[in-house]
Amino acid sequence: MTLLDAPPQSSEPSPNAVDACRHIWATESAHTTSEGSLRYLRCTACASRRVELRPYGDAPAVPVTRQDIPPR
Ligand SMILES: [Zn+2]
């Protein structure tokens, strides 16, 4: 079979235990950039990490990391 016959890959992220956590994000550190406030968040429940950019003004925060980073 050729590549064209291959079934489409699922874009769903594989489930794991961290997904079950209702993350409670605490700001671990933050610094100001020209784009806005860059915040390093850490879940107080499971220790996953996330980085988000909170632009100036009323714009919503933009996640920088595509997925939360699970604890080691
Ligand atoms: Zn969590």
Q: What is the overall silhouette? A: flat
Integer-rounded radius of gyration: 17 Å
Q: Which sequence of strands runs across the widest sheet?
A: 1-2-3-4
Mean pLDDT equals 82
**Count of strand segments:** 4
Q: What low-confidence regions span 5 or more consecutive residues with pLDDT below 50?
A: none
Protein name: Zinc-finger
Short structural description:
This protein is mainly beta and 72 residues long. Helices cover 0% and strands 35% of the residues. This is Zinc-finger.
Describe this structure in words.
This is Zinc-finger. This protein has 72 residues and is an all-beta fold. It has a domain at 22-65. Helices cover 0% and strands 35% of the residues. It contains no helices and four strands. It has strands at 25-32, 36-43, 49-55, 62-63. Strands 1-2-3-4 form a four-stranded antiparallel sheet, with no helix packed on it. A hairpin with a 6-residue loop joins strand 3 and strand 4 (62-63). The model has no long low-confidence stretch (mean pLDDT 82). Zinc ion is lined by residues 21, 23, 43, 45-46, 48.
Write the layout of secondary structure elements.
Elements: E1 25-32, E2 36-43, E3 49-55, E4 62-63
Antiparallel strand pairs: 1-2, 2-3, 3-4
The structure holds zinc ion.
Zinc ion (ZN) binds at residues 21, 23, 43, 45-46, 48.
Features:
binds zinc ion, flat, four-stranded antiparallel β-sheet, 72 residues
